[in-house]
């Protein structure tokens, strides 16, 4: 039987993750008191012929029980009950924004401030986060992207590292993305903007992609960039990071940066990390002209 404990920061997507697992055929229970986990496990082990996949949601609402969770999990391991922990996380500023948008109360906030509640929750959940088999940072994820990552882990059985990479194209004239970890400038590449038939297209179009990426500077840069990223990620993981944002910029964020971001994503698609590509400024010229 596959037994998954789904936990993490409030507002990081634990409920969405449980719904995704339920759609995959998991028997899901949310917010069960921690002290009942051993009894529940025995029940499901006895029913393994009819129920072979279980997902249990645990969050900070189980605050008193969390102190006993470590001992309970250790006892389960000694008894031969295998479990996996999926931990949903997100940047504190993102969580604050989500609470403001939904107007929901944080379980620890009561009449206090949300930021203080999130800080306290992060401290309380630190021990279980260290035990997690999978950590997904949902700061920049849509629900469909969360589903893709959960599919990789629990459906496709992909070897999965607790690390998520966002490749972000942007235009320098609109500013460097504030959440960038690595920033690369590809304004040295041939610019399709000055080719009349390519100007209205983007790096998502094959004509522009071929124009940019078949040049020798682009091919050399991509090769060396990929080698550097492949070197950096394991070292970032050793230092405790669980995500990076790789930002690639050109003047307007429409042609060269989009092409290079897509090319890098193709090179990285077989690496055992979560991966997504965003093109922040790809439509901004069109929006401005239309306005």
Automatic annotation (TrEMBL):
ATP binds at residues 8-15. Coiled coil: none annotated. SUPFAM superfamilies: P-loop containing nucleoside triphosphate hydrolases (SSF52540). GTP binds at residues 59-62. It comes from the Bacteria. InterPro entries: P-loop_NTPase, RapZ-like, RapZ-like_N, RapZ_C. Residues 165-283 form the RapZ C-terminal domain. Keywords: ATP-binding, GTP-binding, Nucleotide-binding. Residues 1-156 form the RapZ-like N-terminal domain. This is RNase adapter RapZ. It holds the Pfam family PapZ_C. NCBIfam families: PRK05416.1.
């Amino acid at each position: 039987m596959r037994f998954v404990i789904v936990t993490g920061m409030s507002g990081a997507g634990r409920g969405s993750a449980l719904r995704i697992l339920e759609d995959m055929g998991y028997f899901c229970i949310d917010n069960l008191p921690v002290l009942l986990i051993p009894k529940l496990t025995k029940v499901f082990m006895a029913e393994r012929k009819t129920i072979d996949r279980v997902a249990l949601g645990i969050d900070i609402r189980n605050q008193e029980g969390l102190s006993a969770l470590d001992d309970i999990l250790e006892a389960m391991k000694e008894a031969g009950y295998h479990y996996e922990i999926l931990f949903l996380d997100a940047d504190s500023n993102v969580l604050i924004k989500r609470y403001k948008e939904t107007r929901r109360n944080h379980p620890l906030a009561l009449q206090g401030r949300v930021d203080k509640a999130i800080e306290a929750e992060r401290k309380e959940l630190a021990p279980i986060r260290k035990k997690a088999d999978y950590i997904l940072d949902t700061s920049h994820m849509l629900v469909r992207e969360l589903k893709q990552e959960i599919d990789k882990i629990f459906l496709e059985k992909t070897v999965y590292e607790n690390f998520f990479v966002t490749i972000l194209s942007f235009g320098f004239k609109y500013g460097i993305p504030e959440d960038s970890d690595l920033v690369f400038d590809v304004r040295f590449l041939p610019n399709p903007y000055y080719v009349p038939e390519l100007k209205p297209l983007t790096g998502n179009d094959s004509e522009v992609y071929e124009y940019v990426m078949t040049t020798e500077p682009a091919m050399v840069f991509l090769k060396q960039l990929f080698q550097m990223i492949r070197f950096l990620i394991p070292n970032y993981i050793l230092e405790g990071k669980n995500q990076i944002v790789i930002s690639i910029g050109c003047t307007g964020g429409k042609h060269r940066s989009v092409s290079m971001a897509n090319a890098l994503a193709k090179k990285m698609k077989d690496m055992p990390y979560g991966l997504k590509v965003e093109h922040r400024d790809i439509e901004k010229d069109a929006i401005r002209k239309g306005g």
